[in-house]
Amino acid sequence: MLTRRGLLTGAAAGGAALGAGGLLAGCTNRSTAADVAPPNAAEGFRGVRDGARQAGILAAGSAYGLLASFRTVAEDRGELVDTMRAVSAEIELLGSGERPEPLELGLPPSDNGVLDGVTARINSATVSVGASLFDDRYGLAERKPAELVPMTRLANDRLDPARTHGDLLLVLQAAHPDVCVHALRRIMRETRGTLVMHWLLDTFTRPDEQPLGGQTKTRNLMGFKDGTANPGAAQDDLMDEVVWVRDGDGEPAWAIGGSYQAVRIIRMFVEHWDRTTLREQEAIMGRHRGNGAPLGDEEETDIPNYVDDPAGETIPLDAHIRLANPRDGSPLMLRRGFNFARGVDGSGQLDQGLAFISYQRRLDTFLQTQERLAGEPLEEYVVPEGGGFFFALPGPGTEGWLGQSLLES
Q: Can you give the residue ranges of every domain in the chain?
C-alpha cells in the first residue's frame, strides 16, 4: 500500500489508500460566517502582472470555465521562455478585453472573431506546471518543487491517461463560454509550435453574486452546496498560512509565492444518486441538502460539534464532511469546484461530475485529506478519472512574465 509519505518520496506507483478528493467539504477548521468573502469575479480581472502571486488562485468562481492541459514540445529552454512570455502577454490582453491590431487581408486574422461586436474578457486565469516539465529536456530537474510528483492512482481511482497529467495547465474563467473558447484559441494560436493540447475540460457553475464567507449558493451536480466552510480568500494572513509557499518551507527560491495545485476530475454516477433516498444522501454528506447546515444544526455556517457526537449518532463517523474536515487542527487547503457535463458514455449513462481543484502550501495537506476519505460511503457514487498534481507559478511582479523566476533564475 502506498502512503502519502511513500508518494512524496518517490515510492512505488501502485494503488494508494487515499480517497476521492475532499469533494464537497471546505476542508477548513476555522471558517465562520465572519470570514471575509473571496474576491468577486465581477470586480474585474487584475492581470498577470498583479504582483508576486497569481490573482486567479483567489478569484471567485465564474459561470463558465475550462481546464486545458498541454504538453510542451519546445526544442530548448529558450523556446520555452518564448512560450511562457507569449502565454503571459496573451492572458494580459485577454483580461483587458482589448483585441490585437488587425493584419492585412492576405494574412491569417490576428483574432478569431468569436467575440467580434462584443465587449467581453476573461475573469481569471491560472497557469501551473506539472512534474513532467522537470525532466531532462530543459535542465530544470534541480529546480523541481520539493513535493511535486505525478499523481499516481489513489483509492477508488480509474484514471484515464488521456485525461491525466500535463507539462502545463491553464485554468480560465469567464461569464460566458464563448469568452473561454475565444481565449483558448488565442493562446493556442500564439503557442502553436511549442504547446500541444493533452486534455481539455469545459466547466460551469452558478457563482455567488455576493460571496459571503463560510456559506454559498453554489451547488454541485449531486444537488448539495459546494464550497461551504471554504477559507475566506480575502484574509491575507490565512491565505499566507494555507495557500502560498513561503521562505522557510524547504522549496526552491523561485517557488516562493506559488502554490501546490491538486486537480481531480471526478465522475459522478448521478442516475444512481438520484435513486438514493434523501436521508441516505444527507448521511453520506453529513449536511442537510436544502440549506447546507450540518446534520443536527440549523444554519449553513454552524460548526459541527464532533466532540459532543463521539459515536456519530447525529453526523455519521464516515460522513464526508467529518472525514474531510475532522476539526482537529489538521492542515487547511483552499478548494475550488466546477461542474462538468460531457454527454453520455458508451453504456448510455450521463457523463457528469466535478472538477475539484485545491491549492495548498504543501501537497501533503491534500494527501492527508485523501487518507482520511479512503473507503467513505461516497465512493459508491463517484470515481476520479483524471486530473493531476501541478504547481501554480508565482506571480511575475509588475514587469515580468509567468515562469520567469523558474526559467531565468
A: 4-394
Confidence at residue 60, expressed as pLDDT on a 0 to 100 scale = 84
What's this model's pTM, rounded to 2 decimal places? 0.90
pLDDT beneath 70, residues of the chain: 1-50, 210-214
Residue with cell 525532466: 135
What is the per-residue pLDDT for 28? 44
Look at residues 361, 330, 340 and name the one whose alpha carbon lies nearest to residue 270: 340
Per-residue pLDDT at 280: 99
